[in-house]
Amino acid sequence: MLWPETRQISVAIGLVNCVMYLELAAGYIYAGNVFQCEVSRITISLGVLIFVQILVNLLLTIGAMRKAPSFLLPWLGVQSGNLGVSMVCLVVVIFGGKIHLGLSSSDYYVATLLPLSSFILL
After folding, report:
1. Quick one: DSSP state of residue 69?
2. How far apart, in whole angstroms, are the C-alpha atoms of residue 51 and residue 84?
């Protein structure tokens, strides 16, 4: 059974995440000029990932409003998968470094220090 303040926090998290992923999708479509050329595999993959994220965030919101904690499980599964993928990407950037990935010094520091500092602060 979810307590009232936990329910409100879960609803807020679900709604904020939905808005964030909708903004990311709109930004990708607007900045990438997706409709002016062929639809690539990356565009399809990102579309599926954003759709899944919005779906599980809506499930989180609906589950919190209906007091159904079982709707939290898809959200937890997807978020743990996201955390695993982001950790793998971070390790590739750290160990791949500037030489193998062809990053400039500023790109390398942004790609390593920003995620590391956010993981440490959380």
Report:
1. G
2. 19
pTM, two decimal places? 0.69
Question: What angle, rounded to 10 degrees, do the helices at 72-101 and 105-121 form?
Answer: 150
**DSSP one-letter code for 35:** G
CA atoms within 13 A on the CB side of 2: 21
**Residues 35/29, Cβ–Cβ less than 8 Å:** yes
**Rounded to 5 degrees, what angle do the CA atoms 57, 58, 59 make?**
90
For the chain, report the end-to-end CA distance as a whole number of angstroms.
Answer: 26
Q: Which tens digit of pLDDT belongs to each residue from 35-77? A: 666 777 877 888 888 899 899 999 888 888 888 878 888 888 9
Cα distance between residue 55 and residue 49, in whole Å: 10
Structural contact between residues 74 and 59, judged by C-beta atoms closer than 8 angstroms: yes
Tokens of 61: 């919101």
